[in-house]
Backbone:
C-alpha cells in the first residue's frame, strides 16, 4: 500500500524496503566491510553489474540507504545522498559539480559557513556572484555563458529573507542551470522545493529533520527535474545508465568515496528516528514562533521582528503562497541595542547557544558571535544589525515561552 500522508509515508518507509529479522526500525550497520560469497560478485560490485550491494561503508551502508530513501520520499525526489554534516553536503555539491572557470550564483543571504565556502571556491578558480536573491531579476542580471549553478536558501538564517523561489526556478530552467535550494530551516514538512523547480534540495539533517540536537548530518536530494545529459561536468564514467541518477552518482563517487564526508551509522539511526516526528515538531514550533513573533512585534522595546508569517515581512505573500507554516527561526532587534545582553541574560528558558532546530529553544546575539569573523562589511550586506538576536524555538509550551519573554522585557 502506498499511503499519501507525509508522516504515514515516512514511518512506514523502512518496511517498504524489506525488514531484517522483522526489525521494526532499520538496524544500525556498523560493519566497515561487506563481503561476498564469490569473487565474481566482488568483481561485479566494482564493475557496477551487481546491483544493490555494499562494499565499503565510506560509500554507504544499508543504514544510510534507508535514511536516504526516507529523505527522497520527504522531498519527492529520485534519490538522495547523505553526508556527515550539512556543510559536508554543501562541499559534496560544489566540489563535485563545479570546475575551475565555472560561475556560481549564490544568494547573499546564506548560512555563514556557506558564505565562507564561496571564498574557498574563488581560490580554486570558480567565479562566485553573491546577489540579492529575493529578486529573480538580480540573479538574471549576473547569469553568463559559464554560469552552472544557482544556490539559495528557502528562509535565510538569520534574517529570514525569502528568495524569489519560483522566479529563480523559471530562470534556471530557461538557462539550463542547476538550481540548488537549501531547505534546512523549513524542511520538506513545510515546503517542497521541487514545487518551484529545484534541481537539488539540500538539507542539514542536524536541524529540522533530526530535531533533537543529538546528531549531525546533511543530505542532497535530486528532484529529477534537471537534465544531466546537458551538464558538461559529469565525468565519462558516470554518463551511463538512468540519466536521472548521473548527478547523484558523481556526487556519491566523488563526494563520499573520494572526499570521505560519510554519515556515521549511529547518527544515521538517530536522524531517522527524529525524522518520524518532523511534521509534529514543525507544527508545534511554528505555532509557538508565530505567537512569539506577534508578541515581540507588539512590544515597545522591540524595533524589528523578522518572521515570514508576519504581514510586516517583506516576502510575506511569498511565504503564504509556498509554505504551510513559518518554522522555528525568528530574529529580532531591540530598540536600544545596549539592553540586548542584559535582556538575553534575563531569559530563563532559552539556552544561550549557537545551533538550530533543537527540542529546546536556543538564543544567540548574532553580530558578536556567529557573524563576528565575517566582519562589519558582510554583516551590513546581509542586513545584520549589532542588536540582532536569533531564536531557534523549541518544543516548550507556547504559554511558557510567552511568559518568559514577557518577564524578560519587563
Ligand atoms: C546549519 C546549516 C547548515 C550546515 O549544517 P551542519 O549540519 O551544521 O553542517 C547549512 N545551511 C543552513 C541553512 C543551516 O542552518
Residues:
Amino acid at each position: 500500500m502506498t499511503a499519501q500522508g507525509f508522516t504515514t509515508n515516512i514511518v512506514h518507509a523502512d518496511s517498504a524496503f524489506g525488514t531484517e529479522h522483522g526489525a521494526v526500525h532499520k538496524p544500525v550497520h556498523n560493519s566497515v566491510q561487506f563481503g561476498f560469497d564469490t569473487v565474481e560478485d566482488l568483481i561485479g560490485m566494482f564493475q557496477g553489474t551487481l546491483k544493490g550491494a555494499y562494499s565499503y561503508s565510506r560509500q554507504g551502508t544499508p543504514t544510510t540507504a534507508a535514511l536516504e530513501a526516507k529523505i527522497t520520499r520527504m522531498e519527492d525526489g529520485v534519490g538522495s545522498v547523505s553526508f556527515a554534516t550539512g556543510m559536508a553536503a554543501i562541499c559534496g555539491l560544489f566540489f563535485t559539480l563545479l570546475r575551475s572557470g565555472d560561475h556560481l550564483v549564490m544568494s547573499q543571504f546564506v548560512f555563514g559557513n556557506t558564505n565562507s565556502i564561496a571564498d574557498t571556491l574563488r581560490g580554486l578558480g570558480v567565479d562566485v556572484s553573491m546577489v540579492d536573491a529575493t529578486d529573480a531579476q538580480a540573479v538574471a542580471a549576473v547569469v553568463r555563458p559559464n554560469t552552472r549553478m544557482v544556490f539559495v536558501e528557502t528562509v535565510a538564517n538569520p534574517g529570514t529573507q525569502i528568495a524569489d523561489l519560483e522566479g529563480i526556478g523559471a530562470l534556471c530552467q530557461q538557462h539550463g542551470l542547476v538550481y540548488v535550494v537549501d531547505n534546512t530551516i523549513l524542511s520538506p514538512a513545510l515546503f517542497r522545493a521541487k514545487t518551484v523547480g529545484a534541481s537539488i534540495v539540500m538539507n542539514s539533517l542536524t536541524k529540522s529533520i533530526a530535531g533533537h540536537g543529538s546528531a549531525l548530518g546533511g543530505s542532497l536530494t535530486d528532484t529529477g527535474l534537471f537534465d544531466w545529459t546537458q551538464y558538461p561536468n559529469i565525468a565519462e564514467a558516470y554518463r551511463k545508465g538512468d540519466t536521472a541518477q548521473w548527478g547523484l552518482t558523481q556526487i556519491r563517487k566523488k563526494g563520499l568515496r573520494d572526499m570521505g564526508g560519510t554519515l556515521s551509522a549511529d547518527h544515521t539511526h538517530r536522524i531517522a528516528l527524529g525524522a518520524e516526528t518532523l511534521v509534529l515538531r514543525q507544527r508545534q514550533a511554528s505555532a509557538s514562533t508565530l505567537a512569539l513573533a506577534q508578541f515581540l512585534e507588539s512590544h515597545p522595546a522591540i524595533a524589528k521582528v523578522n518572521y515570514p508569517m508576519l504581514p510586516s515581512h517583506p516576502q510575506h505573500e511569498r511565504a503564504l503562497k509556498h509554505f504551510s507554516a513559518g518554522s522555528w527561526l525568528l530574529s529580532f532587534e531591540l530598540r536600544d541595542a545596549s539592553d540586548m545582553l542584559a535582556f538575553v541574560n534575563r531569559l530563563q528558558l532559552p539556552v544561550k547557544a549557537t545551533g538550530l532546530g533543537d527540542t529546546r529553544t536556543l538564543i544567540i546575539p548574532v553580530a558578536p558571535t556567529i557573524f563576528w569573523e565575517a566582519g562589519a562589511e558582510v554583516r551590513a550586506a546581509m542586513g545584520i544589525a549589532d542588536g540582532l538576536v536569533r531564536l531557534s524555538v523549541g518544543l516548550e509550551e507556547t504559554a511558557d515561552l510567552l511568559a518568559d519573554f514577557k518577564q524578560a522585557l519587563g
